[in-house]
Automatic annotation (TrEMBL):
It comes from the Bacteria. This is Iron-sulfur cluster carrier protein. One of its GO terms (molecular function) is ATP binding. Homodimer. Binds and transfers iron-sulfur (Fe-S) clusters to target apoproteins. Can hydrolyze ATP. The keyword Nucleotide-binding applies. It comes from Marinobacter santoriniensis NKSG1. Pfam families: FeS_assembly_P (PF01883), ParA (PF10609).
């Protein structure tokens, strides 16, 4: 019987490089246990630091093959899981109970598909194995409820006349000003009232062990956005833009705003990057080309992904079943899941918040 070399096993494991962080599993600290037993059986436990259900199968296959090529190995049993930590926020603002990380989704102007992106990003993170919530901070035009198919007039339960129980929508924990007022009530409020209302929704909702809370920020970079960026304990921000020059200009302002309050910008999502004809499938860049890449390069941040302008995205979102849920195997859903893994991987490189919520562990592949 050939003696299995531990060194050869480790070398085989190192052959796999993470597609998002460009490191091997040892450099990531993802190898939790590697052992060989009598009869040539090898067991490996891997724990990735970001939501990664979509790549767990491929990782398992690649590493299993590499281990089974080592002399003396008859079979390899690879387990892939994930562990999401809490990461540092700006100016050490106290974290929100039940929430490990808050990701702000923002845009410099309205009409770029920010809310659609926020909802699909939340659902994509969930599809990748994370516990996710979404808070609609767009007080003047709350749309998350409709996009998630929450019936009009449905109200969240309360506890002790003080706390909201988040709504369950497609498995997400959700809260929005739209759940508290009717959509026919115009919000004629000044800035301080708006930021006060958002803080109340954030802090008085009983979020239940969330890995990520997505906050759909109001569009723009004015007083309300700045106040929220200073008061909400944000782990990172994602900027949504379109390739149009005017949208890019506003996207840059969004990046500047977050940098001013020391919130790391995780990257840029370029929405409506190409129009896909629903009849013939022809692609045409209606709003210009390469804008997201330029802004990411200029500000030394990442282009997280590009999404097409496609009628089905709007129809599905307006109908209360966003693309990631409506067509989980579609190209659009695949892109959102890729963006979700990118965002999670980028966050995992940040400094940990040791006073934050306890990390959660989930095994996604056996």
């Amino acid at each position: 019987m050939t003696q299995i070399s531990q060194q050869a096993l480790e070398a085989a494991v190192r052959e796999y490089r993470d597609p998002y962080l460009d490191k091997d599993l040892y450099q990531l600290g993802a190898v939790k246990n590697l052992a060989s037993e009598e009869g040539g059986k090898v067991t490996l436990m891997v724990e990735l630091p970001y939501p990664s259900k979509g790549i767990a199968g491929a990782l398992k296959q690649i590493v299993t093959n590499a281990l089974e090529n080592v002399d003396g190995v008859e079979s390899a049993d690879v387990h892939v899981g994930q562990k999401i930590h809490s990461y540092k926020v700006q100016k050490d603002i106290p974290s929100v109970p039940g929430v490990k990380n808050i990701i702000a989704v923002a845009s410099g102007k309205g009409g770029v598909g920010k809310s659609t992106t926020a909802v699909n990003l939340a659902l994509a993170l969930q599809a990748e194995g994370a516990r996710v919530g979404i808070l609609d901070a767009d007080i003047y035009g709350p749309s998350i409820g409709m996009m998630l198919g929450v019936p009009e007039g449905k109200r969240p339960d309360t506890r002790e006349n003080k706390y909201f129980v988040p709504m369950d929508a497609h498995g997400l924990q959700a809260n929005s000003m739209a759940f508290v007022v009717t959509e026919k009530t115009p919000m004629v409020w000044r800035g301080p009232m708006v930021s006060g209302a958002v803080m109340q929704l954030l802090q008085q909702t009983l979020w239940n062990e969330l890995d990520y809370l997505i906050v759909d920020m109001p569009p723009g970079t004015g007083d309300i956005q700045l106040t929220l960026a200073q008061k909400v304990p944000v782990t990172g921000a994602v900027i949504v833009t379109t390739p149009q020059d005017i949208a890019l200009l506003d996207g840059k302002k969004g990046i500047e705003m977050f940098r001013k309050v020391e919130i790391p910008v995780l990257g840029v999502i370029e929405n409506m990057s190409v129009h896909i004809c629903s009849n013939c499938g022809h692609e045409e860049p209606l709003f210009g080309h390469g804008g997201g890449e330029r802004i990411a390069e200029e500000y030394d941040t990442t282009l997280l992904g590009q999404l097409p302008l496609h009628m089905t995205i709007r129809e599905q979102t307006d109908g209360g079943t966003p693309s990631v849920i409506a067509e989980p195997d579609s190209e659009v859903a695949r892109r959102y899941r890729d963006i979700a893994r990118r965002v999670g991987a980028e966050l995992s490189t940040r400094e940990r918040n040791l006073s934050g919520s306890i990390s959660s562990v989930s095994v996604t592949e056996h």
